[in-house]
Specification:
Helices cover about 20% and strands about 20% of the residues. The chain is an alpha+beta fold and about 400 residues long.
């Protein structure tokens, strides 16, 4: 699989009250989004931050609508953004400045790692609540792990947790995770957001109405209304464990394509949008718009995913041939206009796990042809080019991408 690291290129309409919003609403990562607050509180445990000014509504332009509001069923980035807004109570977060784990930002007061890395014991902070006022407890976290681990749930990232052997609650304040063996990224996976046990109970998640329009959450904003393919409106959660957010309403507004989103930004109808590379220069010189570009410390990438359930793509030689046939450098220079870096792993360069010892697939058409020949897919006899076939069957692939995304269309 090929990856190109993305420069985060956002345009922000200069509107009072926008600061502190974006990281809490838009960043996402696998297996679930756990965005960190942008405002760094004073390092005084138990002392509330000073009151922040309250803004009215912040509107974010997005290119596609969410498919679900169920954290354990989401696969797309739009769903991840909505979910990270409504459900946002990870056990721990990383300090946004140092990237070290810091209990200031999570629901746990701390974690004790024991048994030579095989156990993680979290102690929950007191007084945590769901948006409906019901207690948010360690039992919600244990329940979430149980639903994740159940094959019938269909959690798409279940295999990432295969190192977890057991999740227990020794008492009402403690959550203990036991690993089959020491696993370096265990803490990254262990801190995910819970879903409310008192809401979902034993009902299949894909059949529960709260998986589509939840009314109970833990995030800074709670879903208020959702008009498909138009907008989703979230309202401030007075019971958010880090304190009420400074913005009353957060709105995700659908734009039919990148051009429409940029037009809405210019007219002030939206306050934030991720830019296409071709719009960067114009945004940077437009009065009233602040264009922001940076490489995030966590990986964000554009990729082409292979459906391994297809017999054709189950052959690694075909996947390797496709990788060698893609000119990623040209994509960076022409489509991204230099606003990207080539990477060969989903692990960010800032991560402790980053290494240069990875398999690379440089652009090499000769190698791609060789691999296809080895797999039995050959060009018509006597021709160097043309549709390859095997046993009379043509080599045909179907590539899907969301409409309205100019860059993805160009990549395809």
């Amino acid at each position: 699989m090929n990856h190109a690291a993305i420069t985060k290129r956002s345009a922000i309409r200069l509107t009072t009250g926008l600061l502190g919003l974006l990281a809490g609403a838009c960043n996402s990562s696998l297996p679930q989004a756990t965005p960190a607050p942008t405002a760094r509180p004073e390092k005084r445990r138990g002392v509330p931050a000073p009151p922040r000014p309250v803004a009215g509504t912040i509107t974010i332009g997005i290119g596609s609508d969410a498919q679900t509001m169920q954290p354990l069923l989401a696969r797309d980035t739009a769903s991840a953004a909505y979910i990270a807004t409504h459900y946002n109570a990870p056990l721990m977060r990383r300090d946004p400045e140092t990237l070290d784990w810091d209990p200031t930002y999570g629901t746990a007061a701390g974690v004790v790692i024991g048994d030579q890395g095989r156990t993680l014991r979290f102690t929950l902070k007191p007084g945590l609540q769901w948006s409906d006022g019901k207690p948010l407890t360690v039992h919600d976290y244990r329940y979430t792990y149980a639903r994740m681990s159940d094959p019938s749930t269909g959690y798409p990232y279940r295999d990432l947790f295969r190192s977890f052997e057991a999740v227990t609650t020794p008492d009402d304040e403690t959550l203990e995770l036991t690993l089959r063996e020491p696993f370096c990224p265990a803490l990254d996976y262990a801190v995910l957001n819970p879903i409310p046990q008192h809401v979902f109970g034993d009902v299949p998640l894909d059949a529960h109405p709260a998986s589509t329009k939840p009314t109970v959450g833990s995030g800074a904003w709670i879903l208020s209304s959702w008009t498909r393919d138009q907008e989703a409106v979230f309202v401030a959660n007075d019971r958010f464990y880090l304190g009420r957010p400074p913005t009353d309403r957060l709105v995700f507004r659908l734009a039919r394509d990148a051009d429409a989103a940029f037009a809405l930004l210019r007219t002030g109808e939206i306050d934030h949008s991720v830019l296409q590379a071709s719009d960067w220069d114009e945004a940077a010189r437009t009065p009233g718009i602040r264009a922001v570009g940076y490489y995030p410390p966590t990986a964000a990438w554009t990729y082409i995913g292979f459906n391994l359930r297809r017999p054709l793509l189950s052959d690694i030689r075909i996947r390797r041939a496709l990788a060698h046939a893609i000119d990623r450098t040209r994509m960076v220079t022409t489509i991204r206009q230099g606003h990207a870096r080539l990477i060969d792993s989903i692990v960010a360069s800032a991560s402790w796990a980053s290494t240069s010892d990875v398999t690379r697939s440089p652009y090499d058409l000769a190698k791609a042809r060789q691999l296809l020949d080895e797999a039995g897919w050959r060009t018509p006899e006597g021709q160097q080019e043309g549709t390859r076939t095997r046993d009379g069957v043509p080599l045909v692939l179907r590539l899907h991408y969301n409409s309205g995304n100019r860059e993805r269309e160009q990549i395809a």
